Every structure is written in C-alpha cells, then in structure tokens.
Amino acid sequence: MKPELQLLFEAHGVLDASIVVGETPAGLKRVVPILGGTFNGPQMAGTIVPGGADWQYVRADDVTVVEARYLLRTNDDVLIEVHNRGLRHGPVEIMRRLAAGENVSPADYYFRATPVLTAPAGRYDWLNRHLFVCSGARFATAITLWVYQIL
C-alpha cells in the first residue's frame, strides 16, 4: 500500500543570526536560534514559541544536516514539542546564494525533514501516533516548513 500525504500545517519561523561553533569532526557546526513564528493548518494553528534552535552541521560533501527542537503553542493553548531532523543541499551556486541571504526558490534545492511531534494527553494526542515529513524553504531571517502527515 502506497502512503499518502495530508497537509498538517504550514509554519513560518523567524530566525536569529547563525552562531558559528566552528569545525568539528562532523563538519562545520552552527546553531540557529528560533525567535518565534506562526503555523496554520486544517486541524491546528498557533504560534512557534521563542527559544528553540536548529543545531546544524555542514558535512564534507556540502550537505547541511539540520536538527531543530522547538515548541508550538496551539490557539487553544496546548504546547506541542517538535524534534525535526533533515537534510538541505543543492547546486554550489544555489547554496552560495542561500548562504548570502538571497531569496532562492525552494524548488532549486533539496530541503526535507522528518519531524516528530509530541503532544500531551488530550485533543492533540493523536500526533503521538503518526509519522510526519516536511519540505522547507530557507530565507535570510526566516524559514517556511510544509508539514505533512503520512496516512
């Protein structure tokens, strides 16, 4: 049986400047603080709680490995934890423009991740029993994610 995807929400995050940790055995390490944002979908909507971060490293093959942890606060005041791991890469010139803060079409590079959503008991606890994937677009001080439930 082939799985289907259903949009869970579209998220718009506001990001602070990257904090460069430096070269590590895994590659160039950096941390991108998440300042806040919003998310909206057919079953849930709300805000991105300030204080999360995306811990990244750029491998020797120029693939950026992302691992973000942050909280969503739904419009009905429920906190949902997000742990999102993924990859971002593309042609050298496209990635150079992206790193320079230029707006680049997300169709020109690969940005995919697998968010795990953890909700407390109650209205959103069904999130604990499903898998999700997302695609993303990175901008100079923002990010957009399209999160899909795998049916």
Structure explained in plain terms:
It is globular and about 45 Å long. Strands 1, 2, 3, 4, 5, 6, 7, 8, 9 and 10 form a 10-stranded antiparallel beta sheet that branches. It is mainly beta and 151 residues long. Strand 9 and strand 10 form a beta hairpin. The chain has 1 helix and 10 strands, in the order E-E-E-E-E-E-E-H-E-E-E. The mean pLDDT is 96. The chain has one helix at 92-99, and strands spanning 5-15, 19-24, 27-40, 45-48, 52-58, 64-74, 79-89, 110-118, 132-138, 142-150.
- The pLDDT mean sits at 96
Radius of gyration: 16 Å
Q: What is the terminal separation in angstroms? A: 11 Å
- Could you give a short account of the major beta sheet? 10 strands, antiparallel
Helical percent range? under 10%
Order of helices and strands: EEEEEEEHEEE
What is the count of β-strands? Answer: 10
Binned strand content = over 45%
**pLDDT under 50 segments (min length 5)?**
none
- Counting helices, strands and paired strands, the structural category is mainly beta
Put simply, the count of helices is 1
Which shape, going by the Cα principal axes? globular
